[in-house]
Amino acid sequence: MRKEFITATEVRGTETYSTIYAFNIYDESIDLQEAVKKAAAAYINTDAGYKVYQHNCQCFNWGDFFLYVPNSFLKLFGFEKEFSDITQADVNFDEQLASEQDLKFSDEKWAILKKELFMNGTESLTDFIGDKVPDDNDTVDNLLDQIAEQMPDEELYKFYEKYCLEQQLASKWKTQQLIRRINDVAALIPSSEELELDHFDDIEINGEDVSGWFALSCNGSCTHTINEFLKPIITDDEIEKYDIDVRKIFDDLHVVYCG
């Protein structure tokens, strides 16, 4: 078996974006690009593939191939996708990647925070920060929000569930993450197109079937995938776990959706 990479380049206005796709090759005799084309041609002749092809206005590009064609199908052609999601970019070698402002709490302080903060109100917050905190709910909430922003999202969800025991708090932070993801993907779409969120069932990602909402770019007549967002912006499992009304969020953000 060998590993092979293919770089797909996309021009958006004056910017050029490159996405690297990784593949595992089991048949050493094949030419990967030709094998991909054969597999794509075969896939759009299946019921599932034909639906995708028609939905995309009879288009089927590299992003569509990587998103929709399952590895179980590709193995018949001697290769499979590896979901490394590598994106190539040019950078300045001397660019400073971290500064004093990026320094976070120590592990010891995190331990104290997780045991006491959010549990005992202003008293524990005063002890933790070392300064007197006004006994005002809005002030305390703002301070807690500032601290929470320094915690990774998934860690924050687990923390809320474990220490606060209130589903709505975890749901609130998952909702905020979803809104950030929608804004991030919208920023990648050219001004001549618009964001569309579509629901798909049983898309194979990293060997597992995933159902959820995927971000697509629509030019008014057809849609296509966005290389940076080949995974769902939110899965059905997450929607059920955090009890999120995604369609209301889409409506509030004035985002077109289908599903």
- Number of E-state strands: 8
Q: List unreliable stretches of 5+ residues.
A: none
Category from helices, strands and their pairing: alpha+beta
Count of individual domains: 3
List the helices and strands and how they pair.
Layout: E1 2-12, E2 15-25, H1 32-43, H2 47-55, H3 62-68, H4 71-74, E3 79-88, H5 107-116, H6 121-129, H7 137-148, H8 153-164, H9 167-188, E4 194-205, E5 208-218, E6 223-225, E7 234-235, H10 236-242, H11 246-252, E8 256-258
Parallel strand pairs: 4-8
Antiparallel strand pairs: 1-2, 2-3, 4-5, 5-6, 5-7
Structure commentary:
With 259 residues, the protein is of the alpha+beta class. The protein has 3 domains: 1-90, no CATH class; 103-166, no CATH class; 167-172 and 182-259, no CATH class. Helix content is 43%, strand content 24%. Strands 4, 5, 6, 7 and 8 form a 5-stranded mixed beta sheet that branches. Helix 8 runs antiparallel to helix 9. The two termini are 39 Å apart.
Characteristic terms for this protein:
259 residues; single chain; 8 strands; 3 domains; 5-stranded mixed sheet; 3-stranded antiparallel sheet; alpha+beta; globular
Brief characterization of the structure:
This protein is 43% helix and 24% strand. The protein is an alpha+beta fold and 259 residues long. It has three domains: 90 residues, no CATH class; 64 residues, no CATH class; 84 residues, no CATH class.
